[in-house]
């Protein structure tokens, strides 16, 4: 039987995939950026594969008590900028992984100041629209961007309802070894994944506690005995744009 055009195309695609797979293995020892190897990135981004340090039984999240979050306080923002090597600028070309906003309820007049960052959704729209798989969700719920796969299309920027992603417009210098960044790529809050994988907490949470505010609580939402899970059960909390059914991992207390 003569092979069909479809079968030929499939064989060609299979061959290209095999070649790319061999190329990736061959480059496994190549250091692409400070602290990042190609094979480590591939393993982290592979669907259904636990990244280094990622526990599929865990879902990391944040609970932010807006009653303790003072208007004008930027301790969490400053800590994020310092930890991740961001400039701290607020122009459209500056990367902002976390920002403070002021909101006011139209019905009650209640106002609040709160930090907004990547919400680390269970159903992240940024991942759905990414054409290369650069936007991906780890098995522990942390949503990340593989800058080696990112083509800078910015579909994820448009898809995110929280305006939580930034595009790197200019060449970067003085980068942090554990937080590689690159011109032409999209980036956003990683929950300080490099800290979490070593048993630590996000820099914003640490700074908030150090300043005595204690407005941010980090922990495992899947563990019923964790402090964050107990608090979520005990008090009224909200997810931003819960109507979109994205199930964000960041919760807020005191918005109503």
Can you describe this structure?
This protein has two domains: 1-29; 34-253, Alpha-Beta Plaits (2-Layer Sandwich). It is globular. Mean pLDDT is 84; it is low at 1-51. With 256 residues, the protein is α+β, with helices and mostly antiparallel strands. A four-stranded mixed sheet has the order 10-3-12-11. The protein has a two-stranded antiparallel sheet with strand order 1-2. A two-stranded antiparallel sheet has the order 4-5. It is built from eight helices and twelve strands. A hairpin with a 6-residue loop joins strand 4 and strand 5 (111-117). The longest helix has 22 residues, at 5-26.
Brief characterization of the structure:
The protein has eight helices and twelve strands. It has 256 residues and is an alpha+beta fold.
Short key terms for the protein model shown above:
256 residues; four-stranded mixed β-sheet; Alpha-Beta Plaits; disordered N terminus; two-stranded antiparallel ribbon; alpha+beta; 27% helix; 19% strand
């Amino acid at each position: 039987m003569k092979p069909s055009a479809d079968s030929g195309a499939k064989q060609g695609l299979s061959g290209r995939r095999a070649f790319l797979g061999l190329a990736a293995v061959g480059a496994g020892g190549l250091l692409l950026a400070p602290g990042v190897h190609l094979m480590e990135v591939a393993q982290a981004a592979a669907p259904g594969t636990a990244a280094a340090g990622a526990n599929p039984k865990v879902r990391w999240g944040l609970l932010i008590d807006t009653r303790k979050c003072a208007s004008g306080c930027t301790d969490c923002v400053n800590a994020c900028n310092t930890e991740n090597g961001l400039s701290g600028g607020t122009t459209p070309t500056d990367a902002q992984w976390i920002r403070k906003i002021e909101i006011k309820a139209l019905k009650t007049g209640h106002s609040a100041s709160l930090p907004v960052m990547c919400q680390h959704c269970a159903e992240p729209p940024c991942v759905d629209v990414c054409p290369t798989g650069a936007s991906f969700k780890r098995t522990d719920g942390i949503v990340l961007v593989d800058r080696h796969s990112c083509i800078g299309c910015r579909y994820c920027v448009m898809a995110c309802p929280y305006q939580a992603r930034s595009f790197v417009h200019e060449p970067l210098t003085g980068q942090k070894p554990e937080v590689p960044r690159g011109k032409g790529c999209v980036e956003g809050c990683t929950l300080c994944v490099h800290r979490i994988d070593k048993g630590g907490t996000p820099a914003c949470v640490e700074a908030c506690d150090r300043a005595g505010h204690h407005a941010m609580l980090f922990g495992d939402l899947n563990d019923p005995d964790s402090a964050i899970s107990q608090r979520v059960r005990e008090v009224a909390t909200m997810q931003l744009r819960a109507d979109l059914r994205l199930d964000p991992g960041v919760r807020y207390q005191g918005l109503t």
